[in-house]
Amino acid sequence: MEKTGRQHPIRLLSYTTRYFWLLIIPLARSFYSLSFEFDALRVWLRGAWLDLLVLAAIICFAWIRWLSVWFSFDSEKIVLRRGIYLMTEDTVYYSNITTLSIKQSIIYRMLGASTVYIATNAGNFDAADVTITMRKSDADRLYEAAKGSRQRSLNYSISPNKLRLLLFSLLFSSTLSGVLIIIALLLETGEIFDREIEARLLLDTLTEAVNRFARYVPPAISAIIIVLAGGWALSFGSNLISFWGFVLTKCTDSLYVKSGILAKNRHILLRDRINFIDLKQSFTSKVFNVSSLHANCSGYGSTGRNELSVILPITTRKEINGALKEVFPDYPRPRIELKSNPRSYPGFFIWPLVLALIPAAGFVASYYLLPSWYQVAYPAVAITVIPAIWLAMCKTLSMFITGLGFNEGYLTLRYSRLYTFHTVVIPRDRITKIRIRQSPFQRIGGSCSVSVYTSSDAKTRHYIYGLRLDRTLAFFERNGFDLYYTEAPGK
Amino acid sequence: MRKYSLKPAAQYLICGALLILAAAATILARIYLSSFEILMYSLIGIFWTGAVLFGVILLPMYFRRTVIYISSNEITVHTGLIMLRRDQMKMQAVQYVTRMSLPLANLSGFNFIVVRALGGSLILPFLNAVDCDEIMGILQLEISKRQ
Prior knowledge:
The structure holds 2 protein chains of 2 kinds.
Chain A: E1 3-6, H1 11-15, H2 18-32, H3 38-67, E2 70-73, E3 77-82, E4 88-93, E5 99-104, H4 106-111, E6 113-119, E7 130-135, H5 136-148, E8 154-158, H6 162-172, H7 175-192, H8 195-213, H9 219-243, E9 247-251, E10 254-259, E11 264-270, E12 276-281, H10 283-287, E13 290-296, E14 310-316, H11 317-327, E15 338-339, H12 350-369, H13 374-384, H14 386-401, E16 403-407, E17 410-417, E18 420-427, E19 431-438, H15 440-445, E20 447-454, E21 460-468, H16 469-478
Antiparallel strand pairs in A: 1-2, 2-3, 3-4, 5-6, 5-11, 6-7, 8-9, 9-10, 10-11, 12-13, 12-18, 13-14, 15-16, 16-17, 17-18, 19-20, 20-21
Helix pairs in contact in A: 2-3, 6-9, 7-9, 8-9, 12-13, 12-14
Chain B: E1 2-5, H1 8-32, H2 37-65, E2 67-70, E3 74-80, E4 84-90, E5 94-101, H3 105-108, E6 111-117, E7 120-124, H4 129-146
Antiparallel strand pairs in B: 1-2, 2-3, 3-4, 5-6, 6-7
Helix pairs in contact in B: 1-2
């Protein structure tokens, strides 16, 4: 049975420009401050008529845009028609959908709306091919229709233990991800409100918090502590809110993911379209042998700024191995054959050194140029060097784990990027490009770096540093990638 | 497997363009910086050192080192100036190819092919026009075989 409809009226708001908000807030404020007299209203109208006219035009334009979009779906496909003068019609068959995501934020839940993202292996890079805001009842029907088109035999279902999730989120939430979430939030609000208002809001909040702590600790230190603690708290909260109630269900051809406590998300992923899997760990989670399992699949984890492509949230290695065996039975256990060359170990510390030298250089400069700032500069440098030391610790661990392996037609890569450790397993047919690179220093030591590019929405590069060149070439040749060469073109 | 090297005409043209640029920069420096002799001579020195270093040493090295291998299974490019690179893309990953040619590319060798794949691309630079046609033919044939 075919279902036809328009988007949820909440979509009207996103069709208005940010000038709508810049106009409506002062207008509403001035209207609210009016006294209950006819003259006052007349004076207000005389002053605000142009603003009201612009506001009406914006609303009218948004309404026309809203009217110009409508959708229909049945048991096989979804059709989306858009356009006022130029009409476009997108037809997507469920069998071609790589990821179908249905998301409800808290506000959308209160209003009975859902955002539907449909991604295929064609179309836009790093974004969904189709994005529509539907009534929840329509979104539910679409979800059921898409689900009905897939094979139904239930194979496996897993939901992480909530107490363990709480504990692991508390212990292993990353400050860096929290800071990234703050940046993402600021970018989102910046799109609606003025950058100046946003900067003022941020600075006022930070100043107020710093002033409260100023009695106990110097302002510079309290500012850094607030940023670090705030980042961690936000990361912890975000992890918990996102992954509370997480359920992964595997059927013959699809994976179903449900998660969220305040915002509710549902995803259907086509299993054979998953490009690679990635076990992610931070330094502490590596030490405690816990990790989270991610999957790269077109449209999954790429429809929001701070979204992750999680298949299983942070949990014990035993549980991850169990899930891997059940959900990805074709994928072999990650095994490393080729490890990093001891001669390249010093190269692992270049970035931590650069990161440590920048605040140190700043400190030396301030010592000579602004001697009165010494009291502030000294603790500030001590604190800003912490990320460099942490990175050096990560790189030290990375030296011993970095490597490559080929097993049953799957390439395993183990490496670290900044503070995150990755164990990536890629089917051979999803490898797009392999690059072996040698810097002049690596040429002296006979080592090289390998970049593996994989099929993905966007350019995805896995970078493995410090392998022995001769062994790397032999390794790839053994596995069907002949990268040997002589420089003489005449040969 | 077929092996292709870059067209040397492109190297000579870039080298010539660099020398002309360095000469033009020298003339401009002599006109506008004549009252700042030290700065003028330093800048002229930098221009010519850069032009000679790039045109006489680095560019020939890049052209000599860059070799393209194409077989029915893979495309391999070996290239690099300071960083040596070996890139390999499997033919099955190729989605489509783009050819870019500048005016008079038949003579100058300013023919480029961009091989596009899901999640990456590969650039085959400064090709002879005949080689460029041949490579395009091979790639199109391999793509059409999969359809």
